[in-house]
Amino acid sequence: MALGLAEAGCDIAIAARNEEKNAAAVAAVESTGRRAFAIPTDVTSDSDIDDMVSRAVAHFGQLDILINNAGTTVRKSPEEITAAEWDTVLDVNLRAAFLSSRAVYPHFKARGGGKIICIGSMFSIFGGGGSGAPYASSKGGVVQLAKSFAVAWAPDNIQSNVILPGWFMTELTQAIPETQPERYDNINRRIPMGRWGEAAELQGATVFLSSRASDYVTGAAITVDGGYSVT
């Protein structure tokens, strides 16, 4: 998503915990000819979130787009999940999206508008079951959070939308083909396009929701799933 925005002309602030990954992401963005800046950030820390926003504004002089993309999960049956595990997933997936969006709001308002994109999931639509009740709950909450921002901040020309990715190969899912081959095959059979998504295939929706092309689109949840959710 960051690369897609960079190729569309954006300078990018990368905010995450792992400094090595941050550096690699910055290098990838800079290879497009755009500027990039890494901010070590733990989204479970209120002060880190405030620092993330203030440092991004100080570095670039303005802030136009926020993508709430941090996520984690716990793959257990609901009766096995501890309260601490529940809190961790909700803090990363939902609370951080709220705090980050709240932190950028005054900057967006001062500039006359802005774009917020939250990253949901197929589990924003379907029950999580053994794949993680807190994950599904948080991702369902992300949709309602984005809709709430859309309504509250429309007078400030701030658009807030959600992307709902289907099955993509990420660090959270890359073990499934080997560890759960039957599940992997079942997922593939349900996807009309017959394959999992590649990360670059999230770029189109991201650029659209970040651009003037989506100025009259707010409170929407856009699936990018190869048809999985309609099968």
UniProtKB/TrEMBL annotation:
Gene Ontology MF annotations: oxidoreductase activity, acting on the CH-OH group of donors, NAD or NADP as acceptor
A Pfam family annotated for this UniProt entry: adh_short_C2
Tree of life domain: Eukaryota
Pathway recorded for this protein: Lipid metabolism; fatty acid biosynthesis
InterPro entries assigned: NAD(P)-bd_dom_sf, SDR_fam
Assigned protein family: Belongs to the short-chain dehydrogenases/reductases (SDR) family.
Protein name in the entry: 2-dehydro-3-deoxy-D-gluconate 5-dehydrogenase
Species: Geodia barretti (Barrett's horny sponge)
Origin organism lineage: Eukaryota, Metazoa, Porifera, Demospongiae, Heteroscleromorpha
